[in-house]
Write a structure and sequence with these properties.
There is one protein chain. By secondary structure, this protein is mostly helical. It contains 4 helices and no strands. It has one domain.
């Protein structure tokens, strides 16, 4: 428990010192999400169901890629699967989703 508390305090301090870099990373993540969503517009119709499918795929693509790339590199080196693959996917998904919710504005 103490170890987790110390880790979160240190990570919070690190984020505060690197706020501009953190914002840049979030901007890149959101730009990549938007490019994927725009690219999928050619595949899916503009209807409500098509938009839902397109946005769902766009939301899942980056976290899966962010988890698969290190997992594949690890597999090439060690010839076994990366044990924490799903934690990387969840972390990137949570960060991306939080950033998307933060910039969300309802369409009128």
């Amino acid at each position: 428990m103490f170890k987790h508390l110390a880790t979160i305090i240190l990570l919070s301090i690190a984020v505060l010192f690197a706020m501009s870099q953190t914002q840049h990373v979030l901007e890149v993540l959101l730009i990549a999400h938007d490019k994927i969503a725009e690219g999928l517009k050619q595949v899916f119709s503009g209807g409500e169901i098509g938009n839902l499918i397109r946005e769902s795929i766009a939301l899942l693509t980056l976290p899966l890629l962010a988890g698969l790339l290190p997992a594949m590199i690890f597999w090439l080196i060690k010839r076994r699967w990366l044990a924490n693959f799903i934690y990387v996917v969840w972390f990137v998904w949570l960060v991306q989703t939080a950033a998307l919710v933060a910039i969300y504005s309802p369409k009128k």
